[in-house]
Design brief:
Elements (H helix, E strand, L loop, with lengths): L1 E6 L8 H13 L6 E3 L11 H7 L6 H13 L2 E10 L5 E8 L5 E6 L10 H4 L8 E4 L3 E5 L8 H9 L4 E5 L7 H15 L2 E5 L4 E2 L2 E2 L5 E3 L5 E4 L5 E6 L4 H8 L16
InterPro entries: C-N_Hydrolase, C-N_Hydrolase_sf, UPF0012_CS
Keywords: Hydrolase
Protein name: Hydrolase
Length: 265
């Protein structure tokens, strides 16, 4: 399986529409990949709080239309990162969109854990409450999470319980906590014996330098590929069958006790 993580730079000198069209071009350049991934809130920037409301769009808005066409034109599975979603009957959401190679929307994941404590995303956006997976036929089952979700291991165990084998994590992670980014990506891979594909933004927006360093980790915690700090496309080939093999060779998940329903005796 070939995956391409597009670590796009989010800089204030570029308009949302200019960046959207540039993202389309970057996706189109990934012909031959099985899966292409964009980062979290790449249209606005994850820390550009004042833009959330101004640039929010319905699920089937401008980004949806551009990404659906890019997926079908390229013939790839496309995790289009996340957008500030405007729900006409509710709050804003940080929502990830996944498209099939035919350009069909197959999943939308509303971020469950909102960052900011008492400001920013935590107060401007609503929280999702659904575990979302996507089955890529004959390859792997994706489990969806976003940025701050990475700090909550129970979410990933929940995704494993509903079949996830490869976690896809778009993010807008700050450079000052980059060591946590790498550490947590490896931890989620090891403890769940799953692949982790974590795609971050580059550049600086709202005065916050971004970490970059998108990363792909295998079920043993080995880093298969890691980007640098600047904009780039990180492409890696891996065998999704390694998940089942790892879980068979080292069946730690079978020894779970807490949080697992046991049959009554």
């Amino acid at each position: 399986m070939r995956a391409s993580l597009i670590q796009i730079a989010v800089d204030e000198g570029e308009s949302v529409e200019e960046r959207r069209q540039r993202a389309v071009s970057l996706v189109l350049a990934q012909a031959g990949a099985d899966l292409v991934v964009l980062p979290e809130l790449w249209t606005t920037g994850a820390f550009a709080y004042e833009q959330f409301g101004r640039e929010a769009e319905p699920i089937e808005g401008a980004t949806y239309e551009a990404m659906a066409k890019a997926a079908s034109d390229t013939g790839v599975w496309l995790h289009a990162g996340s957008i500030p979603e405007r729900d006409p009957e509710g709050p804003l959401y940080n929502t990830s969109l996944v498209f099939s190679p035919a350009g069909d929307l197959v999943a939308a994941y509303r971020k469950i854990h909102r960052f900011g404590f008492d400001k920013g995303e935590a107060v401007l956006m609503g929280a999702g409450d659904d575990l979302v997976t996507v089955r890529m036929p004959s390859t792997t089952t994706l489990g969806l999470a976003t940025c701050y979700d990475l700090r909550f291991p129970e979410l990933f165990r929940g995704l494993v319980d509903v079949g996830a084998e490869t976690f896809v994590i778009p993010a807008g992670w700050p450079e000052r906590r980059r060591s946590h980014w790498t550490l947590l990506a490896q931890a989620r891979a090891v403890e769940n014996q799953a692949f982790v594909l974590a795609c971050a933004t580059a550049g600086t927006h709202a005065g916050v330098p971004q970490a970059g360093h998108s990363i792909v980790v295998d079920p043993w915690g080995e880093v298969l590929a890691e980007a640098g700090a600047d904009e780039e496309v990180l492409t890696v080939e891996f065998d999704p069958g390694k998940v089942a093999a790892t879980r068979e060779q080292f069946p730690a998940l079978k020894d779970r006790v807490l949080g697992v329903e046991r049959p009554r005796r």
